[in-house]
What we know:
Chain A has no helices and eleven strands. By secondary structure, chain A is mainly β. Chain B is built from no helices and eleven strands.
Amino acid sequence: xxxxxxxxxxxxxxxxxxxxxxxxxxxxxxxxxxxxxxxxxxxxxxxxxxxxxxxxxxxxxxxxxxxxxxxxxxxxxxxxxxxxxxxxxxxxxxxxxxxxxxxxxxxxxxxxxxx
Amino acid sequence: xxxxxxxxxxxxxxxxxxxxxxxxxxxxxxxxxxxxxxxxxxxxxxxxxxxxxxxxxxxxxxxxxxxxxxxxxxxxxxxxxxxxxxxxxxxxxxxxxxxxxxxxxxxxxxxxxxxxxxx
Lengths: 115, 119
């Protein structure tokens, strides 16, 4: 079974401080992990995926298979980073017929960047 | 706007009524997913279409729920005899599978959701 855990419901940091949003997963196969972000009054949108190994808006995330973690980090928080962040795991849908991957989401972490 | 669209954005209904939601995926996306999100939770998978075929349904999807995707374009999600527990945000996402691309490398693009309140 797929499971994603985000232990913090709320993370409050000051502008300019480092940010780390925690994500741990449980999955028996080879995982594909994502971070999605939802800004106030906007739709859920992809922030980054581990396979791309890129930095988006200053955020990075490294997949650590030993610790089954995919924490999201940013060295210096900005006010515009305030949003809800969801970690998600993509895995094949059971009884596979023709492909398809369901996303299993964590419960989300609300990041609040204070001035 | 070429993104995923959903209608209506909000729906208030009385318990026992039927409701139907529509999702228009990104043009040419052959995969379409429905998710449900309740307060304080992340989205949970409900069902999945590849073109017009519904290939998977979550155990969350009771017999009162039915989804269709005629002609492999837009999709509808109908809830019959709504219950207060059906109150949630219903999200639609679409993606494109390209040939033999790695199954795990698809990106799902989400719509704005339909917020349902059952009184």
